[in-house]
Amino acid sequence: xxxxxTNNSVTELEGLHLFxxxxxxxxxxxxxxxxxxxxxxxxHHLDLRKKETMTADYFGIHPKGLVPTLVHDxxxxxxxxxxxxxxxxxxxxxxxxxxxxLERQEVKDWLRxxxxxxxxxxxxxxYTRKIxxxxxxxxxxxxxxxxxxxxxxxxxxHGRASFGDGLPKExxxxxxxxxxxxxxxxxxxxERHQWLVGDHFTLADVSWVPLHFTLIGVDFPFYHYPRVxxxxxxxxxxxxxxxxxxxxxxxx
Length: 252
Hints:
The protein is an alpha+beta fold. Helix content is 55%, strand content 8%.
């Protein structure tokens, strides 16, 4: 998704620039694709623990204050799954989408699902079980965030996650059930072929393996899914995973 920044400094950037965070699974996706394609890029790392995205300058680049943001020759792109699709189209060697129209649609379905469950499932579980206490805002930080953030869903999520008892128990249980159903589907797909879509590594695998990596860190029961675990182990051996994930975040 292309956005028009109000922070005009980024419109002068040449080449590929990535604003990203080490622990962000969405950032991991983009770093993996950049490594798969051996693309040179300039890093603008933002430490989420230090609330480095929570500034007017960064909200002037990404209107929701999220990571990652890709700037390519001054054009600002947001939303990680759309960024990796853009990179694959703009830099098609090696290709990360199948030739078959049917399989390309399957890849899009996996990407869309990952986007749809990001806040209600993945972020809910990870915030509750791991990083919510680390990223919790002080009252003054919350006031700054509310002065910058305009997205009602993110305001509601962080309002629930950052104060009191955190997210409701029923939300957390629903998040885990959603993920269990989706990894059931992945386990079934991996019974039929090597990767999530057919027998070639694609953007579907790129999009989902960071979820596996971060969910391991919150004790998600992957012992139920031997094929998913083997799939993740195979990706872990790829240089792109080591460069795009482990170099920045050795353990979530």
